[in-house]
């Protein structure tokens, strides 16, 4: 199914532009008309991180006239392994500013619009309204569902990509011509079940594999060439080195884009996706200590049993002295409980406090009523107790 | 009945549906999509879609990274 071009062509290309884009212009399918459409195009990239980096860089080089960047975060050293739009000297800088500077360096003819804000239900509709299409490079389910819903409500194409370790998925969701994200995944996995890249890792170059697919589809939609990835889910396996695609149809019962929609405006996405499960939230309430409090307990030689619920490889990167490694999965399967002493206070920690809250719910249910977990996890320990340790 | 689920052969009852195939791999439903012979079966049709001998079932999990 080919689609008509999304954007009308600009009036003309300047001499500079003709020189710059000559390798596009001599492709018959793109040509002057296609390049003029790109010049007139307004593309918004949500997130200047792993996927946003290659996406913004190639969109800029391709000559997309207006490029918006939404990001509220600052560049961290641990971003540089994959977020190639930022460099060493950008550490500590706002990502949107850093990304905009790279875009201007790649192509000064691009008009970069910086949205140095967190995307929320209060601003997403206004921000999206000014753009022809949305490229998604966000890193959490709540924002992804919000981006999808806003795109459907505004009738805009949403170029979606997501990555984890060696696996990537991409599709173009456009309710007018095919399914939306909710037709494929009606709701996110339960909180804590699917790790984020911060918890599970991601091969840096995977960002390029999926980000470039997203740019490829953006260019096709803007110029009206080829077979767009509408109604197809592209699945990439970097270890097998295989790209496959499966058909996705519009779900007539989709609550957002189906025949009788029940979602007709933006919803509460944090509640929809849940940062941690209700059980974990309940367990953690009143049973969360700070890293400093843990340090005080250790210094006072209190009778505690400290458990690190992360994975072995995370433990090897950095750990809290004295912590015993029992991964969260062992708690969920119930096999961890027999390793816990009955006569000591159980203290759980993970990287940032989400996984340990999930494990805490299991431990408390098993009768260890005075068990606690460390809010902020080992990251907080490094920050407040021992800054000489590495973070990840 | 033999079907391939994520590339691995599984022996399922003759009347098995898409939902039955998903249950072979995970008890979770949220955040899961299923394709049979390269076409995603929408969630609402998991119970009403029967499988056939040698079907290729792919159970996919949503990931959030970007």
From TrEMBL, chain B:
Name the InterPro entries on file. Beta-grasp_dom_sf, Mopterin_synth/thiamin_S_b, Thi_S, ThiS/MoaD-like
Q: Spell out the SUPFAM superfamilies in the cross-references.
A: MoaD/ThiS
Q: One Pfam family, short name please?
A: ThiS
- Output the CDD domains linked to this UniProt entry: Ubl_ThiS
Signal peptide positions (record): none
PANTHER family (alphabetical): SULFUR CARRIER PROTEIN THIS
Q: What is this protein called?
A: Thiamine biosynthesis protein ThiS
């Amino acid at each position: 199914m080919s689609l008509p071009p999304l954007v009308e062509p600009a009036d003309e290309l300047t001499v500079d532009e003709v020189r710059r884009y000559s390798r596009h212009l001599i492709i018959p399918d793109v040509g002057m008309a296609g390049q003029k459409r790109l010049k007139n195009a307004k593309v918004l990239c949500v997130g200047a991180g792993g996927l946003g980096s290659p996406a913004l860089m190639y969109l800029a080089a391709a000559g997309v006239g207006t490029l918006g960047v939404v990001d509220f975060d600052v560049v961290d050293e641990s971003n540089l392994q994959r977020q190639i739009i930022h460099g060493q000297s950008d550490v500590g800088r706002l990502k949107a500013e850093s990304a905009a500077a790279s875009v201007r360096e790649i192509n000064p003819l691009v008009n970069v619009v910086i949205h140095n804000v967190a995307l929320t239900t209060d601003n997403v509709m206004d921000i999206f309204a000014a753009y022809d299409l949305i490229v998604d490079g966000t890193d959490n389910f709540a924002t992804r569902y919000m981006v999808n819903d806003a795109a459907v409500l505004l009738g805009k194409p949403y170029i979606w990509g997501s990555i984890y370790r060696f696996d990537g998925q991409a599709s173009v969701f456009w309710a007018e011509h095919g399914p939306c994200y909710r037709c494929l995944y009606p709701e996110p996995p339960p909180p804590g079940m699917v790790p984020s890249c911060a918890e599970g890792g991601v091969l840096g170059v995977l960002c390029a594999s999926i980000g470039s697919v997203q740019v490829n589809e953006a260019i096709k939609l803007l110029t009206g060439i080829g077979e767009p990835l509408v109604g197809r889910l592209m699945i990439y396996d970097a270890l097998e080195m295989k790209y496959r695609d499966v058909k996705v149809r519009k779900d007539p019962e989709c609550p957002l884009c189906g025949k009788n929609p029940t979602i007709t405006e933006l919803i509460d996405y944090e509640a929809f996706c849940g940062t941690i499960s209700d059980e974990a939230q309940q367990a953690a309430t009143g049973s969360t200590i700070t890293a400093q409090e843990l340090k005080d307990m250790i210094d006072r030689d209190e009778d505690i049993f400290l458990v690190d619920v992360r994975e072995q490889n995370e433990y090897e990167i950095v750990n809290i002295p004295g912590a015993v490694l029992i991964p969260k999965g062992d708690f969920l399967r119930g096999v961890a409980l027999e390793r816990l002493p009955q006569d000591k206070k159980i203290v759980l920690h993970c990287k940032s406090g989400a996984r340990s809250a999930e494990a805490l719910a299991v431990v408390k249910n098993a009768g260890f009523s005075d068990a606690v977990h460390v809010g902020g996890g080992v990251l907080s320990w490094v920050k407040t107790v021992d800054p000489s340790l590495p973070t990840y | 009945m033999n079907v391939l689920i994520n590339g691995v052969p599984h022996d399922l009852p003759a009347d098995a549906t898409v939902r039955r195939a998903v249950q072979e791999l995970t008890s979770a439903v949220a955040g899961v999509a299923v394709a049979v012979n390269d076409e995603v079966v929408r969630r609402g049709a998991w119970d009403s879609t029967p499988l056939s001998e040698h079907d290729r079932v792919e159970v996919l999990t949503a990931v959030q990274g970007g």
